[in-house]
Specification:
Length: about 290
């Protein structure tokens, strides 16, 4: 009887030991293999989204965290097996977390170095609210659900001609580029470049001009990259030219769109796409279509 009892106790201990070993093995697989596969893959995504030498901001690190949380069990098993995640909604979300890709595609420069500078209102090209007239003009009251914020990025390097950089606005809700515009460098930025031995080229008083044909080639190249349906609405753009070719402007407006009663938009009451090409080859681009989506 005592011998049988000892055997029973031994079996219990062996069983407990087996469970502990299995739990330890499961923990190892979960943390060191399962977790390591996700860390390795998402770190690669982060490296590809942040230019070499650029600072790692919280906005950019979100590429990593979004990637890690979006990988499901099946996707991770595929990573352990040396395969890519399945072409699912989750794996597609990993690709769209890179807010820089939409800018690089628009500028046709996959290696363009960009810097995240913060968030801002999409002004002066988009506002929606309740407008009241006053003696000194008008006042627009903000309305809940219609306040928009955009992520702001800038080129890390100044333009080849002129002391300026392109500044970009991206709607974080749809990851759509809503504005690209040049910003003149501040005096301290110009001095910092000089101190590094890489001064920017000061602009001259000479005014550059461009033919409509040349400007159209530039403008339509950008629009084709930015708008999936550009081929369908191309002929609907209205063209204007200023000062004999100093600037060329194309604008398309969705006049079928109607804001809710009581609301007005400034400076546009309808969604627009606008492209301006200047005589020196620089551009201004605005797209309020996603901003009008509520």
């Amino acid at each position: 009887m005592k011998k049988q009892k000892r055997l029973t106790i031994k079996k219990v201990f062996l069983g407990i030991a087996g469970v502990v070993i299995l739990l330890a093995l499961a923990f190892y697989l979960r943390v060191y293999i399962y977790g390591a596969a996700k860390v390795h893959y998402c770190s690669k995504q982060l490296r590809e989204s942040v230019p070499r030498g650029a600072s790692l901001t919280d906005e950019r690190f979100k590429v990593y965290t979004d990637c890690y949380h979006s990988l499901g069990f099946v996707d991770t098993l595929r990573l352990i097996a040396g395969k890519s995640p399945m072409n699912s909604a989750d794996s597609q979300a990993i690709k769209t977390t890179d807010k820089l890709a939409v800018i690089r595609e628009f500028m046709a420069d996959s290696n363009r170095e960009l810097v995240f500078t913060g968030t801002d209102l999409p002004m002066p090209y988009f506002r929606v609210g309740k407008v009241t007239q006053r003696n000194d003009g008008e006042n627009m009251e903000a309305v809940e659900g219609w306040v928009r914020m955009v992520n702001v990025y800038e080129d890390a390097k100044p333009l080849a001609a002129g002391c300026g950089v392109y500044q970009y606005h991206v709607d974080p809700r749809s990851n759509t580029l809503t504005q690209a515009v040049t910003r003149g460098l501040r005096p301290n930025e110009i001095e910092a470049l000089k101190a590094k031995g890489t001064p920017c080229t000061e602009t001259t008083n000479q005014v550059s001009k461009m033919t409509k044909a040349d400007a159209e080639q530039i403008a339509f190249g950008y629009l084709e990259r930015a708008l999936p349906n550009f081929g369908q609405i191309r002929d609907q753009f209205i063209y204007t030219q200023k000062l004999g070719g100093q600037s060329h402007d194309w604008i398309w407006e969705d006049k079928d769109y109607q804001l809710p009663d009581g609301l007005e938009g400034r400076p546009y009451s309808h969604p627009i796409v606008r492209m301006t090409v200047y005589g020196n080859g620089s551009i201004t681009y605005q797209n309020t279509l996603p901003l009008f989506e509520n």
